Amino acid sequence: MGESLKGWQAMNLNDVRGKLDVLAANQKQLEWLRSLPQADFLADVRNLDSTLHRLQTSIQALLDIAAYVVGSLKLGTPQHTADIIFALRDASLLDPTAADNYATMVAFRNRVVHLYNRIDPGIVYEILKKHISDLQGFHKTLAEVILRHPDPSITKGPA
């Protein structure tokens, strides 16, 4: 279920900061949801809705930042969202095992977006409990890459 990246606009460092703010807010809410016992989580559909929204927007924010990195480092033009991950892996900026996990995150986001009526709440709870560290790892890796590879040609946005 690849999505075409045609028409994506270039980001700047201010955009990246905005995505990082989204990630921080989502992380806080996801940690709270993660602390719920499964029975409590499943008893209120708002927990599922909030988790799906927070996961979807966190994964998208990470993809947006990753696309910024791919563009900044001139690693090619990805045709689909998963290609962003593979470009970073192929440039040795992502561990291959981690890249596979991140590609699975992208597939999950695509499922939430396109097959939302086929989401198993129990699987979402399992993702919440066992795979939040994947989001955190991707976030950390992207931040490290940006710090190691500053791109002076990137505009910093409006002053």
Task: Give an overview of the whole structure.
The chain has helices at residues 13-34, 38-43, 45-72, 81-90, 96-114, 121-130, 132-148. It is an all-alpha fold. The protein has one domain: bsu32300-like (Four Helix Bundle (Hemerythrin (Met), subunit A), Up-down Bundle), CATH 1.20.120.580. The radius of gyration is 16 Å and the shape is elongated.
Could you describe the largest sheet, including whether it forms a barrel? none
> Number of helical runs?
7
DSSP, total strands: 0
Secondary-structure-derived class = mainly alpha
* Percentage of residues assigned to helices: over 70%
Task: Give the terminus-to-terminus CA distance.
Answer: 39 Å
Order of helices and strands: HHHHHHH
User: Unreliable segments (pLDDT under 50, ≥5 consecutive)?
Assistant: 1-9, 152-159
Average per-residue pLDDT, rounded, comes to: 85
Class, according to the CATH hierarchy? Mainly Alpha
For CATH, the homologous superfamily is named as bsu32300-like
CATH topology: Four Helix Bundle (Hemerythrin (Met), subunit A)
- Rg over alpha carbons: 16 Å
- The CATH architecture: Up-down Bundle
Task: Please state roughly what percent of the residues sit in beta strands, choosing from under 5%, 5-15%, 15-25%, 25-35%, 35-45% or over 45%.
Answer: under 5%
Apparent shape: elongated
Number of domains: 1
Which secondary structure elements does this structure contain, and how are they paired or packed?
Layout lengths: L12 H22 L3 H6 L1 H28 L8 H10 L5 H19 L6 H10 L1 H17 L11
